[in-house]
């Protein structure tokens, strides 16, 4: 019999798997990692207010479905990094100090009033 088959059919392994499964079901699991979360849901939230279904947020307010944002406000469905951004909708990687942008991808550094922009760099403004 091959080593892999021996491993799968090992009676001790089955017993250990069952024991681990039972322990996992009985264990206490922390539902949220974070501090000072007011009216918020998600995980890894710190100093947030009105942040829903979001993860990896710090110093954010009035955001939904976001991840990895710092000091951001009024964002919806934004992910993969944003710092000091506001009024962003359905975008990925908004960078630093961007505002009033929708449907963007990798728009970084002072982007303002962008719609459907991809890789707009360094102070891009009023672009479609």
What does this structure look like?
The chain has 128 residues and is an alpha/beta fold. The chain has one domain (36-127). It has helices at 3-8, 11-26; strands at 34-38, 42-52, 54-58, 61-64, 67-70, 73-79, 82-83, 86-92, 95-96, 99-102, 112-115, 125-127. Strands 1, 2, 3, 4, 5, 6, 7, 8, 9, 10, 11 and 12 form a twelve-stranded parallel β-sheet that branches. The longest helix is centred in the N-terminal third of the chain and has 16 residues, at 11-26. It is elongated. The model has no long low-confidence stretch (mean pLDDT 90).
Structural features:
128 residues, alpha/beta, 45% strand, elongated, 2 helices
Distance between the termini: 64 Å
Arithmetic mean of pLDDT = 90
- Fraction of helical residues: 10-25%
Taken in chain order, the helices and strands follow as HHEEEEEEEEEEEE
- The domain count comes to 1
Global shape: elongated
Q: Strand pairing plus helix content: what structural class?
A: alpha/beta
**Overall radius of gyration:** 22 Å
Query: How much of the residues is beta strand, in percent?
Result: over 45%
């Amino acid at each position: 019999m091959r080593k892999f088959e021996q491993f799968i059919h090992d009676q001790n392994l089955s017993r250990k798997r069952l024991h681990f499964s039972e322990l996992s079901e009985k264990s206490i699991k922390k539902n949220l990692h974070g501090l000072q979360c007011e009216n918020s849901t998600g995980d890894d939230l710190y100093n947030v207010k009105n942040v829903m279904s979001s993860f990896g947020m710090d110093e954010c307010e009035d955001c939904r479905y976001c991840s990895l944002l710092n000091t951001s406000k009024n964002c919806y469905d934004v992910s993969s990094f944003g710092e000091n951004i506001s009024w962003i909708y359905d975008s990925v990687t908004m960078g630093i100090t961007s505002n009033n942008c929708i449907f963007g991808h990798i728009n970084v550094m002072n982007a303002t009033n962008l719609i459907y922009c991809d890789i707009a760099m360094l102070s891009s403004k009023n672009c479609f």
